[in-house]
Design goal:
The protein has 407 residues and is α+β, with helices and mostly antiparallel strands. The chain has a single domain, classed as Distorted Sandwich (Beta-galactosidase, Chain A, domain 5), CATH 2.70.98.10. Helix content is 17%, strand content 31%. It is built from seven helices and 18 strands. Strands 5-6-7-8-18-15-14-10-12-11 form a ten-stranded antiparallel β-sheet. It has a five-stranded antiparallel β-sheet with strand order 4-9-17-16-13, with no helix packed on it. β2 and β3 form a beta hairpin. The longest helix is centred in the N-terminal third of the chain and has 25 residues. It starts with a helix and ends with a helix.
Amino acid sequence: MRHLRLLIVLLCVAILAGCMDQQKKTAKNTFGDDLEFLKKHTDVVVLSDAAGDGQVAVLPKMQGRVMTSTAGGTNGLSFGWINRELVASGEFVEHINVFGGEDRFWIGPEGGQFSVFFKNGVPFDLEHWFTPAPVDTELFELVSKSQSRAVLKKDMQLENYSRTVFNLRVDREVRILGKGEAVTVLGITPAEKVKMVAFESTNKVTNTGEKAWEKETGLLSIWILGMFNPSSGTTIVIPFRAEPEDRLGAPVNDAYFGKVPADRLVVKDGVLFFSGDGQYRSKIGLSPQRAKPVLGSYDAVNQVLTIVQYTKPRGAIDYVNSMWKLQDQPYKGDVVNSYNDGPPEPGAKPLGPFYELETSSPAAALKPGKTVSHLHRTFHLQGSEANLNTIAKATLGVTLEEIKSAF
């Protein structure tokens, strides 16, 4: 009997230790934790709202990306995904440096005969895919900063698959929104107990070369990607125009990495649900004919509702095509994308894991000295499901119950 009691005690201790270990593995970092880590390895510009609860971390040496943000001050939940191992290494790797960040600047297209990720004549595969250094490893110059905004710029030269050379300047302004402005652009006033942070990046690309950018030799686009921490209860929500396919084409492009399984992508009347659990590598996109200027996600584990708004010019239909192949229609690309990370093959390590909410500008046919602009705005809201439900319905057109029961 004594041995049995001892065995039971030891078993309970082991179970308790395992639970504590699992809690450590799944614990979420606070904004203060992430800020302390980032400051050890790079320069950080912290933007804050008037109350100081909403804060945003901008990294000039990492292309001016918003690495993370919070709605609860230094002790609040940190929303952006950070690749701590890569950041701490101080080294660069081939193909892409996945540092993280919930608003980072990229240039499209990624694939096709006008790609700036593949050199002329190479196969469209991972071995020959390289992220251009100016948007991967090179720093952006910090022009000015204040409590609520950071202004950055970068001159760069890019060459596409068809050997067209582009000279351009990027001007990027990151700004945190005050509560009054955030409520106005969100279109609904959250309940008093809801925590909120809202920020936006205004991104401009100017043709600084001597030749006009033309469709026949390739165009560029502004591409903003947001990388967020996944959870087992995260669902991406994208409203779309619900009209017949013979008028607007398929509601969603899910062919980037092979067709997305039905238990990970559900398309309903005017809205689609896509898993953001970070467990299965998959990507989707919506055409400008289908997409609306809003998308988002809901993390049911941490009760975080994320809303993304962006500029979608009326009548614009030419968007660069990033599919990894030579294309018959290089300007029939997507304006909105979402990516869910996971192992690229069984047993392999994922990049993150993380999930992404992405938006793009139209293809930029710019004469010398002319500019294209793209705004990408992010809201994070934390609170009770009753309070967040009202916001989800007003912004995404669905209830939290519909989101949670999609899969």
